[in-house]
Amino acid sequence: MLQFSKRLISKGLKVTLVTAFINVETVQARGGEIGIETISDITEVDRDVRSVDAFLKGFHQLVSLKLPQVVEKQKNMGNPVRYLVFDSIAPWALDFAKQLGLAAAPFFTQSCAVNVIFYNVHRGLLRIPVEGSGAPCVHGGVASARAI
Questions:
Q1: Where do the DSSP E strands lie in 16-115?
Q2: What's the pLDDT tens digit per position in 100-121?
Q3: Are 56 and 77 in contact (CB under 8 A)?
Q4: Residue 18's domain is classified under what CATH number?
Q5: What is the pTM of this model?
Q6: Whole-number Å distance between alpha carbons of 100 and 106
Q7: Sequence-ordered list of residues with C-beta below 8 angstroms from that of 103, at least 6 positions apart, any chain
Q8: Mean pLDDT of 47-71
Q9: What whole-number distance in Å separates Cα of residue 104 and Cα of residue 93?
């Protein structure tokens, strides 16, 4: 996402990266001209992370609470948000964008091969873990590889 943001800036766009749960100083050092907004505040959302589902539910709550605030803040600073590019792992961000009157699109931060594997596991066409040590893992849409 950081590289994509840099590419957009090179085309003359203003970019603000909204992030949670990371070291902001590291991103600012790497980002340069990219505006950074953090939305993490553990006091406002229950942080029950005993499972992936619990984490994603908490993250959803956090974004629903903070994203409108970030959009409003940018508007008040003279930089109205027009477009939301979100990580494809959070497809519900599209609903938030619509509620805020923003155009939006997912950004796939993982390789297409990973998406193919997820799809095939979901459909039951590929079982994990792959049985047998060194078993070849070949599936439609993915180049031949060795299972790890």
A1: 16-19, 35-38, 83-87, 103-107
A2: 999 999 998 888 888 888 888 8
A3: no
A4: 3.40.50.2000
A5: 0.66
A6: 16
A7: 82, 83, 84, 97
A8: 82
A9: 8
| Range in 6-15, 45-54, 65-74 the model is least confident about | 45-54
Q: Are both 16 and 75 inside the same structural domain? A: yes
Residue-wise over 43-68: b if at least 16 C-beta within 10 A, else e?
A: eebeeeeeeeeeeeebbeebbeebbe
Whether the bond into 129 is cis, omega within 30 of 0: yes
Confidence of residue 147 (pLDDT cuts 50, 70, 90): very low
Residues 103 and 120 in one domain: no
CA nearest 61: which of 42, 36, 83?
A: 42
Domain check: are 54 and 123 in the same one? no
Give the contacts of 39 (CB within 8 A, at least 6 positions apart).
Answer: 18, 19, 20, 62, 63, 66, 67, 70
